Amino acid sequence: MTRPKSVKRIREERKETNSHNRSLLSYSLFGFLRFSLFAISLVVMTLQLQAQGFELSGYLAVEGRIFPQSPLLNEQYQIGNLSLSLQPEFYYEGSGGDQSILFVPFVRADQHNGERSHFDIRELYWQRVWNSFELSIGLRKIFWGVTESQHLVDIINQSDLVENLDTEDKLGQPMVNLTLIQNWGILDFFLMPYFRERPFLTNEARLRIPVPIATDLTGYESSSKEKHIDWAVRWFHTLGIFDIGLSHFSGTSREPVIIPTITGAGAPFYHTIDQTGLDLQATTGGWLLKFEAINRFGQGDRFFAATAGFEYTLSNIKNSGIDVGLIMEYHYDERGKEGPAPFDDDIFVGSRLAFNDVQSTDLLAGAIIDRDTGSSFLNLEARRRLGDRYKLEVEFRGFVNASREELFYGLRKDHYFQLELARYF
Amino acid sequence: MKTKISLLAILPILSGLLPLTAATDTPEEKGLAIATEADKRDTGFKDSSSELIMILRNRHGQESIRDMRNKTLEVDNDGDKTIIIFNKPRDVKGTAFLSFTHKSGQDDQWLYLPALKRVKRISSNNKSGPFMGSEFAYEDIASQEVEKYTYKYLRDEEYEGHACFVIERYPVDKKSGYTRQVVWFDKAEYRVQKVDYYDRKNDLRKTLTSKNYQQYLNQYWRPDEMHMVNHQTGKSTTLIWNNYKFRNGFTKRDFDKNSLKRAR
In which domain, by residue range, is B20 found? Predict the structure, then answer.
């Protein structure tokens, strides 16, 4: 329903921007860089003012991916990919811990993916803490929610999907964040003056949708484009066994709609949306009962989506120290198969093993299965510390019985094994 | 049951200076009186902070080191609030564990995962499992509230030059990994000198010894070192405390979910 409208809009947009496309792109980049430079100079100034309480930590990691199957498209690379990433963390603290600056840049050099070789400022912000409120200004990463297999309510940051499909890597979001801490809960206000576009993989990459994405044709519903001022508010409270989060977001949708263009490439289009979210967890005995729901308006018809489930942990089985968690979650999206959501009527079944050993070995394995088509998304992640400073991580993702209607149909040849070795400092 | 316990708990406080060795007490009453006196002597410190090094040793003597910070807030008429912030190993740096212990019922626990910026409420069911791969179980490091056990006085005995009361305590919580613990309190200051832990099969599983007690604020005793040996596996864990500070002026604000996110 919205798509024709959006296509029309994007065509108008294209007409408008075609002539000064380049300058627009460089301007938006310039805006971001300017913000970053401002923040960096803030760090440097503070560094000079108070060199006390400085801390450096972070990691350097090498990652290898193996794709056992040949790619779907000729331009996609074969078999393997190597990659190197670095994420240092600089932390300064002053006023006895009441003031701090955190700077977390991230950089990756990737063998095959032009877009995956990227630099980002994950976090760069100043924070001041008072007795009943906190103020943070800069680029931050905020997480909302309780479920494991999908993060429906979590909306503040743009997902860095070139990093990983799991939407858990995020781009730093410029914001002013005021937090009130009261007996009736924690109330967060966010003002977000600048939007970060979703990054897309280049054509030679694996794990991308088969349609090439023309990011230079990116369109916005708002005339202020990426400079639209977004806002959000969230109340979070614990009442006995319940942890409750109630949120509202108003601004540029982090998820674009991909609009087909005459060249065959898809153009990302960002609507202006309003989304109300609820996340709820009840913790009792070995049970965690979880529920997340959203109601979004502005991206087509108003729709509802939810994730509900549980995690039950059998702890210290037979005095071995091992915990086994059983997880089950159900995903629902009102827009169904036609919608852009990967999971509309799907069940996640999974298990978490925590060995609680010296090396903190753990494993999470599961599958998200569509109830109509039987299409399954398999996932396994395992971690183990080596010595005191190294960590080995194994990841497998598989796409089984991918049916044509599924969003990951285009990824059906992209099962992969990943091995990552990180050195922490 | 509960009122009975709390009445019994009040008794020695009411009796004040009455000698605890009164011949009329049953072993159960005497055991409870000793535990209550030890708790009373450790009440009123308000808050504390400390740095903690944990040395894990396996059977072959290979060591692994953990480095963390610890903050505690005393809560009137309830268990303590505790926050533990990890510094080493580096891959868990910034991870923080928040616990509200309760005198009765389940404790509330949250874990902060810095990579995802996620505060996660976790199940406090896991009493008997190892804390950070060490020989200390969660229930061993949790705040030891009087109400969490029932007691029985066993005997008087000398241990490492200290005249001690030896009492036995039985966990109330069915999820505990122990049938009983035998505790050596020194008579002079009611400090825990040694604990023998017996597993569910009633076999001796672990022994904890505390060394180099220091007195703070002219009242509160804390050991510089604790040593836990697992007799069944040959593994051991040593805890070394540094930089103990009391009455930092902490409030419940220092133990909320937001403070967990910026704990370092």
Answer: 2-44+141-244
